[in-house]
Amino acid sequence: MMTDTAAHTPDTATGPALRPAGVDYPEFLPGWVWLVGAGPGDPGLLTLYALQALQQADVIVYDALVDDRILALAPPATERLYAGKRGGRPSAKQADISETLVALARSGRRVLRLKGGDPFVFGRGAEECQFLHAHGIPFRVVSGITAGIGGLAAAGIPATVRETNAAITFITGHAANGEVPDSLNWNALAHASPVLVFYMGLKHLPVIVDRLVAAGRSADTPAAAVAEATTPRQRVVTATLGTLVEAIRTAGLHPPAIVVVGEVVSLRQIIAAGARQAGP
Ligand code: SAH
C-alpha cells in the first residue's frame, strides 16, 4: 500500500513508467548543455527526451514560462536557476544567461537549459547555441510543443483545416526594442496568410489589429486569444478581429497569451465541445 507521502511525491529518476523502453535515449554527459523545449505548460505534453533530461540534469536553468509542474518532475536535489525575463521579476540579460550556461558546463555539470514551448520558436535558442558553439561547449537541442500549436489545440482551435488554410504564419508582436517588429509586411500578412498566430501579441494588439485592418483584412475575421494555455488557469476569448481588443479587456486576460486570427477559430465550438466530451 502506498503511504500518503508516496502518493504525492512525483515519480522521478527511476520510475519505469516514465522511461518507456523502445526509445534510444542518448547519454546526458557531464559538461554538456541540453537545450530543451518544455512545451506550453501541461507536463503531459513533454517529450520523453525532456523527461529524461529533467531526471538526469545536475542543474536546470529555466525560463519564466516553464511550468512549476514540469520543474517538479526533476529530483528535489537538482539545482534550479531562474533565468526569466518577464516584467515584475528581476530579469536576466541574455549575455549573462549564455555566460552562466558556459560556466556551468565547464564546471563539469549536466546543464539542462529549459525553455517554454520550443527553444527555436521566438525563444532565443539559436543565440544560445551560437554562444555555446563559439565557446566549444557541446550541446544537444530537443524540440518542444510550441504554444502557437499546443495552445490552439488546447482551446479546440485547429492550426490548419484543408478547406480554410493551406498556410499558417507565426508572428512575434514584440521586437527586441519592445515595439511591434518593423520588418513585418502587413499587406502580405493581411492578404497572403489565412491564419495568423501572434506570440507576445497582447501588449501591442491594438496596433496589430489596426495594421491588419488598414491593410485590408476584414474586421469580421474570427479571432481568439488563449491565455496560459494548457495550465489550470487557461482562458479563451473568441471574438472577431475588430472586437478582440475589447473582448480581451472585458475578460481581463493577461499574458502569456497566443492570439489567432482566421477562419479556423470558428471551428472551436465543435472541437472544444468534442474535447470536453472526451475528457474525464
Ligand atoms: N518558445 C516559446 C515562445 C516564447 S515567446 C514557444 O515555442 O511557445 C513567449 C510567448 O509565447 C508568450 O508571450 C505567449 O505569446 C506564448 N506562450 C508561451 N506559453 C504560453 C501559454 N502557456 N499560453 C499562451 N501563450 C503562451
TrEMBL record:
Region (Disordered): 1-20
Biased composition (Low complexity): 1-17
Superkingdom as given in the UniProt entry: Bacteria
UniProt keyword list: Cobalamin biosynthesis, Methyltransferase, Porphyrin biosynthesis, S-adenosyl-L-methionine, Transferase
Enzyme class: transferase
Family: Belongs to the precorrin methyltransferase family.
Protein name, entry field: uroporphyrinogen-III C-methyltransferase
Organism: Novispirillum itersonii (Aquaspirillum itersonii)
